[in-house]
């Protein structure tokens, strides 16, 4: 085995461990909240020793930061893909809301942590995550502005329209549970229609 | 002073203390989460000693239960008043959503606790609060059903329409902060319009 291979293997093993720790932290934060979950809870959920946590992450806050960063980057990627799927603002808004709603149903555990524990981040990390959220807002604001300019949307307040659409989608993570009668796709389609209605799209 | 008066005075003093403790618990739960807030945090927030907490509430969970019960009963009262303000389903839905949205802006601290810490309640208390939430759903479902029957609303899925409207209003507690540019009334009016749009009300 060459040195490169050894290095690649050990990196991949370390990344696997980090992933397991993030999953454990996500489960612990989701159940007990950031302040209620101890390093021991996280280690137990990940099937590891508390000491192992600190080998990979210097603090509980760093774990929350990494989870938040991955979560927000993933959401941003799916809504950007959605928005880029068409030139028509109505179709863009539909794709944006579908992606955002479906994500919050499918990833409801991590989405609860990511949306409700923001306040526990250290100032520098908080600012970085807020910047990602603002990017998410900019995407929908731009779609709405284009739709207003072309006369296909009708709303008196662009910003409040964004907040209502994005907020409704975020709230899905609060109530959605696996195994119910609505699939993430069902939820995505309904919220996409609702987004167009909220924006006052001409039917 | 008659014995009745003494008893009334001491009841009122005890009720004041309990109210102060609930406010302290609300602040502590909102900041640190139910599992992250200790009796000491609650007592400090209320300006009392930790021992005083147990004189009035037998556990942290009982405090959460009382806060949740008061909060849900208050919400139920305002939306019922709203729904009773007219015979017209469109006006009823507008009043319902206005009341629910305004409440979640005005009472955003307690509303966050009430909506996001439900899972920490003991089974019996949890069932009681869920019953109050179902009552809240029944009010909006009945309005939507009447509107569909009269042909003033248009939606393929009544239950998902309710969930979308109620969920959007609940989410306000996540993002609303005092001192911003939107008053609780501004938010109430916008979400009331959005509720009619989501329900497919004939303009």
TrEMBL record, chains A, B:
InterPro entries: Homeodomain-like_sf, HTH-type_TetR-like_transc_reg, HTH_TetR, KstR2_TetR_C, Tet_transcr_reg_TetR-rel_C_sf. Keywords: DNA-binding. Pfam families: TetR_C_24, TetR_N. It comes from Gordonia neofelifaecis NRRL B-59395. It comes from the Bacteria. One of its GO terms (molecular function) is DNA-binding transcription factor activity. SUPFAM superfamilies: Homeodomain-like, Tetracyclin repressor-like, C-terminal domain. This is Putative transcriptional regulator. Residues 38-57 bind DNA.
């Amino acid at each position: 085995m060459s040195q490169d291979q050894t290095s690649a293997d050990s990196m991949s093993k370390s990344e696997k461990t980090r992933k397991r720790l993030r999953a454990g932290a996500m489960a612990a934060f989701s159940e007990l909240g950031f302040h209620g979950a101890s390093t021991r809870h996280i280690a137990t959920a990940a099937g590891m020793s508390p000491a192992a946590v600190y080998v990979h992450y210097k603090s509980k806050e760093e774990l929350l930061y990494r989870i938040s960063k991955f979560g927000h980057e993933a959401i941003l990627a799916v809504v950007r893909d959605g928005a880029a799927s068409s030139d028509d603002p109505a179709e863009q808004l539909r794709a944006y809301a579908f992606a955002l709603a479906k994500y919050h149903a499918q990833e409801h555990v991590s989405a609860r942590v990511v949306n409700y524990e923001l306040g526990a981040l250290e100032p520098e990390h908080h600012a970085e995550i807020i910047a990602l959220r603002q990017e998410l807002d900019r995407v929908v604001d731009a779609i709405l502005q284009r739709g207003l300019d072309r006369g296909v949307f009708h709303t008196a307040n662009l910003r409040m329209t964004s907040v209502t659409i994005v907020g409704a989608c975020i709230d899905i993570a609060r109530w959605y549970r696996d195994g119910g009668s609505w699939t993430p796709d069902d939820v995505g389609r309904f919220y996409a229609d609702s987004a167009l209605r909220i924006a006052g799209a001409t039917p």
